Amino acid sequence: ENRPRHVHVVVTGRGAPEALLALADTVTEMRKVKHAFDLGVPAQRGIEH
Fold first, then answer.
1. What digits encode the pLDDT tens for the residues 1-49?
2. Are 24 and 11 in contact (CB under 8 A)?
3. CA angle 29-1-16, nearest 5°?
4. Under 8 Å CB-to-CB from 46, ≥6 apart: which residues?
5. Are 29 and 46 in contact (CB under 8 A)?
6. Angle at Cα 42 formed by Cα 36 and Cα 44, nearest 5°?
7. Using CA atoms, how far apart are residues 15 and 45, in angstroms rounded to an integer?
């Protein structure tokens, strides 16, 4: 609430509390549309982890 105007707070993850969303300048939600993992392709280093 008291941060300077030139300071941006970036938070990643799910389930952010409404209080944090209210303070944020930018909020983004991501959702999976299609993923190779669903077709049996194992997780790949550098992509999923």
1. 788 989 988 888 888 999 998 888 888 888 889 999 999 999 989 888 8
2. yes
3. 25
4. none
5. no
6. 90
7. 26
Residue boundaries of the structural domains of the chain:
1-49
Are the CB atoms for 21 and 27 separated by under 8 Å? yes
Tell the residue number behind the tokens 């105007």, with chain if given.
Answer: 5
Please check whether residue 11 is in contact with residue 19, taking contact to mean a CB–CB distance below 8 angstroms. Answer: no
Write a three-state SS string for the chain.
Answer: CCCCCCCCCCCCCCCCCHHHHHHCCCCCCCCCCCCHHHHCCCCCCCCCC
Burial code (b: 16+ CB inside 10 Å, e: under 16) for 15-26 equals: eeeeeeeeeeee
